[in-house]
User: Fold these one by one.
Assistant:
Number 1:
Amino acid sequence: MDWPLLLNALALCAIGLLNVYSGTRVHGVPGTALVTRQLVWILLGVGAFFAVYLLSDGFIEETANGFFLAMLLLLVVVLLAGKVRGGAQRWIAIGAFNFQPSEFAKIAVTLALARYFSSKYRYGGIGLKEFLPAIGLVLAPFLLVALQPDLGSAGVFLFILAGMAVVACLRWKVLAFFAAAGAAAVPVLWFFMKEYQRQRVLTFMNPELDPLGAGYHVIQSKIAVGSGGIIGKGYLQGTQGSLRFLPEQHTDFAFAVFSEEWGFLGSLLLLVLFLLLVYRLFFLTVRSQDRFASFACGGIAVFFLTHIVINLAMVCGLFPVVGIPLPFLSYGGSSMLTGMMALGAAANLSRSRFTFQGGGGKGRGISS
Amino acid sequence: MTGRIRKREQDPDITRRSRLLLYVAFGAFALLLGRLYWLQVVESDRYRNLAENNRLRLRTVRAPRGLILDRKGRAIAETQGSFDLVCSPVDVKDLEAEVGLLAEIVEFDVDDNEVLDKIRSAKRSNPYSGITVARDLRFEQVSVIEFNRENLPGFSVLVEAKRSYPYGTTFAHVLGYVGEASPEEMDRSEDGSLAMGDLIGKYGLERLMDNVLRGVNGGRKVEVDAAGRDQRLVEEVPSRAGGAVHTSLDADLQVTAQEALGNRAGAVIALAPRTGEVLAFYSGPAFDPNAFARGIRKADWRVLNTDPRKPMQNKGLQGTYAPGSTIKPFLAMTALEEKMQEKGKTVLCPGSYRLGNRVFRCWREKGHGAVDMYRAIVQSCDVYFYTLGLKLGPDRVAKLEKDAGLGTITGIDLPGERKGLVPDTEWKRTVSKDRWYDYESVILGIGQGAVHLTPLEMTVGYAALATGGEVMRPRVVSKAIGKDGKVRELAPEMLRKLPWNPENVEFVRKALAGVVNDYGTGGGAKLPGIVVGGKTGTAQVASVKGKMIKSEDLPYEIRDHAWFVAFAPVDDPQIVVAAMVEHGGHGGSAAAPIVKAVMQEFFRTRFVGPQRKGGA
């Protein structure tokens, strides 16, 4: 059992819970409704962690492809029958809960890639021929999510692919080629963007262009963060969130609420917790002797790293506004369950090393 | 960590690559930390200010404007609460749509487009200010607006102080009106105390006494949410109400004056001759100052300004008119003071007077026969005064008249006073190369020709006759109580004491009493029990050739101006009243009843006689 991983996540969840309370309260009115739901999500998330953690050895690897196909199917269903909210078709309603398949698809892609790369891995690095199918594997969910349209989540797939390609030892030459190609593709991407997405990019370059329109998010978010100062305004003393100046103050902009109230010191603490989480996952990546486990942990590490860095950069005005939640802090069930399942998978896979001991992996599997 | 990893049997490439990604993570986190340091430590103050600007709004609490009271302490200008629609430009989301919606509910002070411009310009210059766009909303309108709250971010209904004039048009020209301070006025205000939307006096006493009447605005610092709704009060500075202005005006007398003049154009002024206190000052037609307090509409303003009878003009001190026969007592006074003509000397009036080949008619076609000075005044004989005018010449008459206040600025404490003209030879020299002709002296005797005076000058002149030469500065304000509570009493101010011979004064006063009581032209002003002395005047506007035509039969614009100026009681004058009716016809029939009505009202509450003098 990987306690550091779970405890780290629970600490973040606790901070997130306090923060959701502060972020959803309207001035003078306690915002208990969403806090209760978030608490339920945390408990369900812990359940999901253990459910995945307790899966028998090898089960994750064996079912990775099936899981991936199932998620692809769900993404198709979302496109055909999903709920439209905020101009995008991202949700499937199950009972009272809205469920966002693109979140779960990130895990599915990670595991499927881990399985593919572990099957192709060879000493000295894999080449272009082995890499192209991996691109095809990611392209399907990427396009389905991009069509919703949710360019932010779609982009996460690319980051996971890139990160895992690094871990799975894609040759540097190929990597450099794709990096160059990716850079060249950015202007092309512009033509495929929807109008509101272009607006976001433009206002990211210069938020003052439209301070009450597209630039509003960035400006208000920076004000929230900046006004927190070194020690913050104090818990429940933030004004940007409770007076509704911040948009999405309990979901994508949760960190703005947090850093307004806890200041630079609080932000520092949060960054340390996130860094420990990512560090632990990379630690598991190199410690796992099974390649699938190693690549899966690496993918999960990249998954968290991408979310954390992009979300925080967005809140700080370093990145255009995209709908990427902050793991364990943003309100939302799909993101919470995905995060917990990902950690559960990492814990499961890193546990599995004991059973593989002596069983013999490829190469120099037996410990001395 | 590296130590432990090396012990494991993982492919060193994977380890190396993972460590690389970890370094990337370190780098990204370092970048974020740097950014946070920049925002939260270096630039923190700036963002804190921005957050405060987001959160806090300074709402002006307008100070109520002070009272203006009549001599009996009745409010003639006051401040009442009014539901006003106020816009906070920074909180408005969709200006056109919201203004469009509001236009269905309320009437804006100005046109819809002007409202848009006003808010747009305020959004640039001072987006956190409050701009009043509609005043005096009815309760139904307020509830409809509150009901549509969600669709109207940036607009709110506040209870604001509204200037109110309970007597409506009655005191229009004396009180003047208030209006929103213009940008120039805001720049000019010495202490910058004028804020956008503040009301200031634009005319009349409101303007003259603005410093006393205008209070000091307070402020409420409130916390608002993103929709601009007030959440809680953070700080409050109470406003300080404006001071009070006590006037010598008598509302009852003023109402009487207005009613007596009725719909006719003209002016009615009542003065206490010994102190110069203005008891009533009405100019008709008047305007309703209440309309200005709400912010007058362009169309209404245009109507007021294009009306040929000039409702915006204060005829009492801005209109000048030929005095007609009301000038005669001053000629008589000049003759006596200059010892140019004995009062007993008679002049034969055959109905006209010939000078060279010109013929000057007396108003009485068949003539007055032989008249002495007393009869000439009582009967208003023109021929007598033609000869007197010729005898005295313009300069002597002008000197006495100017001393008495005619053709001068009287110095009343109301803005916009104009002075009339009392012609003399020097004036003639300055305006034309021609010399002064005798016929000019002749018509000067009956108050025609170049001479023209304001009703106020005439009132002051008769007050001088009534007091025997005391020329007082006429004044409306008797006491001003400042915002700080300091009381400033305004004592009567004597401009000059003329060294008139009391006997001569006595004689003129007696003659004027005769006009009213001794079968003279002013019988229409006769009051039971009180001896009124006065003089009629019928001032020609245009000369009509040929036969005498009754003024009533002429077209309105060229009908004669009707005058009557009187004081009472003659023994101890307590009131001087002047009535001038533009194109009113005969002084005796058109103006004298107005004076009578005002005097009747004045003496209604006063006992006059040897037992008790004066009254309340």
Number 2:
Amino acid sequence: MSEPPKGRVNLEKAAVLLLSPQAGMELLARVFHGFGVRQPHRCHDAQTAMRVCGETELDLIVCDGSLGNGEAYDFIAALRRSDLEPSRYTPVMVIQGHTPADQILKARDCGANFVVAKPITPRLLLERVLWVASEQRPFIELDSYVGPDRRFQNLGPPDGPGTGRRRADRAAAAPKPDIDPKDSLL
Amino acid sequence: MTVITRRPENRLAKVVWLPGGKTIAQALEDAQANLDEIRGESLQVLKAMLDEIQAVGRRSEADPKAEDLDTLYALSGRVLDIAGLFGLPELGQAALSLCELVDRLKSRKAWNWPAVQVHLHGLLVLADPDKIPPEGRQNVVDGLRQVGQRVAR
């Protein structure tokens, strides 16, 4: 069993929008309430979510990718290309189950900060929230893509003095134990 | 091609590390406690969905109808939503494997009853996780994934 996680998290003042089908909303809201989020904005469709984005300065948006016909991905792409500031820059996490073949490109290019694969657990979700809070990626606007810069790799912290992240450095490094990222909280 | 690069503040970072709040361990405990309040009814819903998956699956054995495949896909997705939150991650992974299989079969306009059947059996086994040790449960999931990959070829 893994060590109990250390550190604190304060989501009491966080304005969080949850976009999910009715069926999964209660579970998601209960998890985020447990994390300390007082009253998340609960939206079941993209239109309502977009209206909330226009009215509220949000700190985090969590979308369930299973919303019908890729609606969550369309919402994120539309938000990123909208003039709703600061909401268009708000970190967006997508919780994704199976993505049908005809939606894979849409999901890849929608402009989300992070995708969390189902089956989810509270631990996995909180870990990803903290990860999103820690990232400093620039926001890129192209004809074909608007959202956080996708040119990044999650390599974890450097190995220590004398080691680098260049390919040659990594190749020279001794093999490391294979640690499942799910077992570590930031 | 014009590329515009901006560096907006990470609003989440501004609040999440503020003094106060709760320990991460407490946050996780509270989240699980909130879920446990509806554990009984959620597991009943899960069981009803698993029963329906079995019924729809068996009904589809010889002559799968498009709406049955849609139902099978949707129900598997709902099992995937719930299972991990109530300590049944392997059941969720098996449901994901069934989602992938059904989607693949639909897109190819094909049918493979043995592959679906083995998934139905897998879901039955994993719905009662106390009956098999963790490594056995993972073996079941790995086996289902292999079946799915074989169908994909």
